[in-house]
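quick q for whoever's on today - can somebody do inverse folding on this one?? i tried earlier but teh output was garbage lol. tokens:
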């Protein structure tokens, strides 16, 4: 029994993805469930933000807010992201890339330009990294994203009619809802004497935020498969986008860990650069880029969680 529980703990993320994938495939192929799937779709769409809110709230309850401050590796990971984004945009403009090649590069760009995932702090904590450094970088990464998107996207998709301030304000509103509100509630929970016992009870539940994230991953995996199954293009092109996402994911994790080694923060920098807010990436791709470019971030979420699972397994093996 203990081996089974340890297996569940080590492989929570792939098990969540597997359950989400199987559930979607059942609803997709069984015609009798079509009506039920249409009724459940909006329910899951509304549940997912709630999961993300609870995940961040529980995580922020463990944060020492006095230690939130930028450190050196924050600067260098941001520089790499800026250079990578600039390289993609310059290539599209100067090489006059169009057609499927443009869609492929847009899907890659959506994964690069999107901010660090809010759940990256959860994995960093699980891996023994610094929670405060990751929390700080999450905010800085979202600010950088809000500055880059209104500058870059109108250059490659002039038809989007995006203005800098409108896009900036929309993104910052989303950042406030997703990050700032749960952080303020966590700060309130930590500060009020009346909530002291609740706060202590909450932070002493082992890996609560991690397992909440595993539940949300089931929904995200099903949504990802839905986008892939309904993509109006050839299988070979979908496989090309998926493979590009894998290469990009490995590259960003590797570069992040390389940067982090110079500052004794390889875990934090690797997660910061590699683990992306793919839900946000899918939203910006669907809103401002070609609809097919959403497949890239959809595949990226599968790759990054496979990597996270391997990291967590290695961490557990090392501790044992």
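ok took a stab at it. sequence:
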């Amino acid at each position: 029994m203990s081996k089974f529980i340890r297996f569940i703990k080590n492989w929570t993320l792939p098990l969540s993805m597997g359950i989400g994938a199987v559930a979607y495939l059942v609803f997709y192929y069984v015609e009798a469930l079509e009506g039920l799937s249409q009724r459940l779709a909006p329910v899951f769409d509304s549940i997912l933000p709630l999961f993300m809110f609870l995940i961040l709230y529980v995580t922020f309850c463990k944060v020492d807010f006095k230690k939130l401050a930028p450190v050196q590796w924050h600067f260098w990971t941001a520089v790499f992201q800026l250079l990578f984004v600039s390289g993609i945009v310059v290539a599209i403009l100067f090489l006059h890339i169009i057609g499927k090649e443009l869609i492929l590069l847009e899907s890659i760009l959506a994964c690069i330009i999107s901010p660090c995932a809010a759940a990256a702090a959860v994995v960093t904590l699980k891996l023994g990294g610094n929670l405060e450094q990751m929390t700080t970088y999450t905010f800085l990464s979202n600010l950088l994203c809000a500055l880059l998107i209104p500058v870059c996207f109108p250059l490659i998709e002039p038809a989007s009619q995006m203005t800098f301030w409108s896009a900036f304000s929309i993104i910052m509103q989303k950042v406030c809802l997703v990050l700032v509100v749960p952080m303020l509630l966590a700060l309130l929970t930590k500060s009020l004497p009346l909530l002291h016992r609740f706060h202590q009870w909450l932070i002493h539940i082992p890996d609560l935020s991690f397992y909440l994230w595993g539940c949300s991953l089931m929904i995200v995996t099903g949504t990802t498969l839905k986008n892939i199954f309904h993509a109006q293009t050839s299988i070979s092109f979908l496989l090309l986008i998926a493979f590009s996402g894998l290469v990009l994911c490995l590259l960003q994790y590797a570069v992040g860990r390389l940067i982090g080694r110079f500052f004794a923060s390889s875990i934090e920098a690797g997660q910061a650069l590699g683990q992306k807010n793919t839900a946000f990436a899918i939203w910006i791709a669907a809103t401002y880029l070609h609809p097919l470019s959403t497949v890239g971030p959809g595949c990226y979420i599968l790759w990054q969680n496979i990597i996270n699972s391997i990291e967590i397994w290695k961490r557990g093996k090392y501790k044992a």
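fwiw The longest helix spans residues 164-191. also The chain has a mean pLDDT of 83. so keep that in mind when u check it
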